[in-house]
Specification:
Helix content is 42%, strand content 15%. It is α+β, with helices and mostly antiparallel strands and 625 residues long.
Length: 625
């Protein structure tokens, strides 16, 4: 029995953790896959159906049991707030420091009122090998039979060979699961040894914040984490008939025992996105199709017999029996044609709270939410410890409350649903109205960082953009460049020490495109200068219009000679040299063979209409941007 334990560490039935694999005391092996989430609400109905159908195809290909877990814990926002404090102190602007402090205070107050939950989706791949012991192994079972050192070495080698053989099998299963998830558009990765320890620690210690760092002894890895039970075990467990107390949290486990005739796609999403600490475990054990067809044939014969018996007695037809017969025959057809597969499915839920009163409140919310969808759950009375152990990532169902379900309805469970948009990096963009959490992310960490703001007139587009600029400055973003045709951002730039550059033919602000480039720390000045010449050539080609390959080569040579006229050449110290102007380039071109035509085309930028715009020394501080 699960209740037969002397200390909380006895509940950690782990022999060792090695090669990304959990070795259970019972001899079983487990690998844990962490899967990404999909924001189902943003998908169209057609997109949702495609994802669910692909997931169903993945289920149809399984020939071994899997355990799917939704692990919900509170996000550790402290590191994000600490990062804000560090950035705020590094800024020299008093106004920006004040804004940073107000921003941090808002984050703290909001999180204190609205806990932000992070959902982790896991798939546990089990393997329960059957190892036939050798004659030497059988001898070890005899108490008075003692093995010598050579025999013990041979036993260790045999055990290692069995582990390697079993590891290869479970790796094949894990690869099959990952391939199926990728086909459904779900990114996934196998957890390594350290990540497994961290995950198990958070399961056994629900009072800790998600991603709590775990202190592992330096020499633990050498022993394949054999004493890991002492590290991840909770401080204590108190078991009662209605709940258990794990460390400082009360926990209560439930099982699902009844479902409606039809399950809508994404029906589990409201439960997954509840803002509370919980673990949901879904056990999916495939049933042999031949056995299932044999049992269904018997069931169809029983129903037909009942219908015939009622007809002979002259009774009014029973719609329930007729519906049941149609369902059985339809399932037989889909199983025979391999369109679906039958599973034994068990779904268990464990919720956590600081008090029994809060636990009762959460229980009422969950039961009401599920009953509204005609899904019924019950608490596991007198089996609360078994319920808690069943949601752990060991693939062991100790409650054994299973219902037969084909892959079609099972695919509607699609658990990889996440509306969380909170990370430990980036800035606050707003509040997620789906789950009342913060939208914090760094768009520049994405493959494509472009952003477009749409709203009706007066909807706050400029305000939102200005707020993003201020919060980006708090995070030490160095360059913010705004093209502002209506002078909306002039006051913002002046307040935070930015530079204004009026782009017009009569502007009093000038930028010299031939300015000496700023040399980044660690970069070679010669390489930076050559790169600047290439960029400058690109700008001049835009100014000149169509340029032939010969003119392009001539332009590159002229720019290099223009810089050389001011002793700005690669390999020399040019940090204090006086940069040339655009008219200097015109002069060089006029003296080069074939360059007079290009010089004439530059005339309007040197002495013509645009002369005051780009043919003057820079008179603004372009570092303040």
């Amino acid at each position: 029995m699960a209740s037969d334990f002397a200390s909380s560490s006895d509940l950690v039935k782990i022999e060792a953790i090695r090669n990304n694999t959990i070795l259970l005391s019972s001899g079983g092996l487990r690998q844990v896959i962490m899967a990404g989430g999909v924001n189902f609400s943003l998908k169209s109905e057609e997109g949702q159906n495609i994802i669910v159908q692909t997931y169903q195809n993945f289920l149809n290909g399984l020939d071994f049991p899997i355990q799917t877990i939704i692990h919900s814990r509170k996000v550790n926002i402290d590191r994000y707030v600490e990062g804000l404090s560090r950035h705020g102190h590094e800024n020299a602007s008093p106004i920006l420091k004040n804004q940073s402090e107000e921003y941090r205070e808002f984050i703290r107050s909001f999180v204190s009122r609205n806990p932000i939950m992070e959902k982790t989706f896991l798939m546990v791949v089990p393997l329960s090998p059957i190892n036939i012991p050798s004659a030497a192994g059988i001898g070890n079972l005899i108490p008075f039979f003692k093995r010598d050192k050579a025999g013990q070495t041979k036993d260790a080698e045999e055990k290692e060979q069995n582990f390697r053989r079993n590891l290869e099998q479970i790796n094949q299963r894990t690869g099959q699961v990952i391939s199926g998830l990728i086909t459904a558009g779900i990114e996934s990765v196998v957890l390594n040894d350290e990540q497994l320890i961290e995950l198990l620690y958070n399961f056994y210690n629900p009072e800790t914040i998600e991603r709590e760092s775990v202190t592992v002894p330096p020499d633990a890895a050498k022993e394949n984490f054999k004493d890991i039970a002492k590290i991840i075990a909770p401080a204590g467990i108190q078991v009662s008939s209605n709940n258990i107390k794990v460390g400082g949290k009360f926990a209560k486990s439930f099982f699902f025992f009844s479902y409606p005739r039809y399950l809508a796609t994404g029906w589990l999403e409201p439960l997954i996105n509840m803002p509370c600490l919980m673990d949901v475990a879904i056990f999916s054990d495939p049933v042999d199709t031949g056995t299932a067809l044999k049992n269904l044939r018997k069931k169809a014969a029983q129903i037909e017999s009942q219908i015939t018996d009622q007809q002979e007695k002259g009774l009014v037809r029973d719609p329930l029996l007729e519906t049941a017969l149609r369902d059985v025959e339809s399932l037989r057809d889909t199983l025979q044609q391999a369109e679906e597969k039958l599973f034994d499915v068990g779904v268990y839920l464990t919720i956590y709270a600081d008090s029994e009163e809060e636990l009762s409140r959460l229980e009422s919310q969950i039961i009401s939410l599920m009953e509204a969808k005609l899904v019924y759950v019950k608490p596991a009375l007198f089996e609360q410890l078994e319920g808690f152990l069943s949601v752990l990532p060991f693939g062991e169902d100790l409650l054994s409350v299973r219902l037969p379900m084909n892959s079609g309805p099972l695919s509607s469970f699609f658990p990889f649903v996440s509306e969380d948009l909170t990370s430990n990096q980036g800035i606050l963009y707003g509040i997620n109205r789906h789950n009342n959490a913060l939208v914090i992310f760094d768009r520049f960490s994405l493959e494509n960082a472009n952003q477009v703001v749409f709203a009706k007139s007066g909807g706050g587009k400029s305000y939102a953009t200005k707020l993003e600029i201020i919060r980006s400055l708090m995070m030490d973003i160095e360059n913010v460049i705004v093209i502002d045709p209506e002078n909306e951002y002039k006051k913002l730039a002046e307040t935070f020490g930015g530079s204004l550059f009026n782009i017009s033919l009569s502007s009093q602000e000038h930028i010299n495109p031939f300015d000496i480039p700023i040399i980044p720390e660690g970069e070679n000045p010669s390489d930076v200068l050559r790169s600047h010449i290439v960029n400058l050539a690109g700008l001049l080609k835009l100014m000149l219009g169509k340029v032939t390959p010969e003119e392009d080569a001539l332009l590159d040579r002229a720019i290099t000679e223009t810089y050389a006229s001011r002793e700005i050449v690669p390999g020399e110290d040019f940090s204090k040299a006086q940069p040339p102007l655009l008219e200097d380039l015109e002069t060089v071109l006029r003296n080069l063979e074939g360059g007079r035509a290009i010089a004439e085309r530059l005339y309007k930028f040197t002495k013509g209409s645009f002369a005051g715009f780009v043919n003057q020394p820079t008179n603004i501080d372009i570092t303040h941007r």
